[in-house]
Amino acid sequence: HIFKCDIPTLDTNVILLLNGFYFDRKTPLRELPSGALVGSFAKASTEYPELVEKYYGKYAQITNEGLVALNSAFVQDGIFIYVPKGVVLQKPLQIVNLIMSDNDIMVQHRNLFVLEENTGATVIVCDHTFSPHKFLTNSVTEIYTGPDSRFDFTKVQNEHNDATQISHIYLNQGKNSNVTSNLITLHGGLVRNNFHVRLDGEGCENNTSGLFLADKGQHIDNYAYIDHAKPYCTSNQLFKGVLDDFSTGAFNGKILVRRNAQKTQAYQVNNNILLTDDARMNTKPQLEIYADDVKCSHGATVGQLDENALFYMRARGIGERESRLMLMYAFANEIINQIKVEPLRERINHLVDMRLRGELSRCQNCAMNCG
To answer: Which among 18, 201, 266, 359 has most CB atoms closer than 10 A?
Structure first.
């Protein structure tokens, strides 16, 4: 069953990853262009060894990241996507990453996405579970986007609050490539997301955004590192968090502008709302600039809902609870609007609205989060 990741009116090619292993449903993906490869990472490693070896491990370095080394040592499978030169995948690829076990479990899976020159693809990753048990997921995803390529990536984390998820995403962009990444975290006990982006060709554009909604004892940690290695590149980071009860969160963002990366434009913003006195948020935006002809900015805020705005709405007959929900939804909507695929954006709108109203929170008690 994959109903939990249903996106009404959006026609996708669905790929199922079960406990870190590619689940072969014996039916070919629809409308997949000639030369494009989508399937098991383990199978691709044996059938296309030269292609996999060309990109595998080139961006995710085991020398600096212990958990990446752990993944490299124990990984058995994952998803492999290859889009050859000049090919555009018209139908989005939807990866349902499902954890289902009768016991506590640790999952290590590896994804490799390669887009050659002048290509395009949309990938949606949905993290879910049917299991009430505790589990740890340690995943590594390496993404290469060639010159003049376009890649749209959305990851939705909606597991239960006994789950621990550590996600490493390494992205290397070629000349004039354009990548949009959206991360939506609805549930998860301990979540750590690491984004490493290298703009490795002139004229690259990268837009990375994230939203998390936390309550109870959740801890959500987002790390974003953007390396401007070449000139004439643009990057935009926007991360937001809403924290309730005694939940905690962290954001650590860094933009590196190398000496030869002139004409860089780089912007980083992290905004957060604390709904209780017990919620905690730590934020650390950073700029490290070695070029002198650039436009860069960074900033962070941690605060509460605007009392003046609440008073304004209540004075016009809107109840306190609905007023607070409207402000929270408006705060979150700036991130949701970054999602380019309209049916997916509408679905995320619905899930975020339910989460803010506490409906998904009640649902998560049965470890289903069906939404």
So the answer is: 266
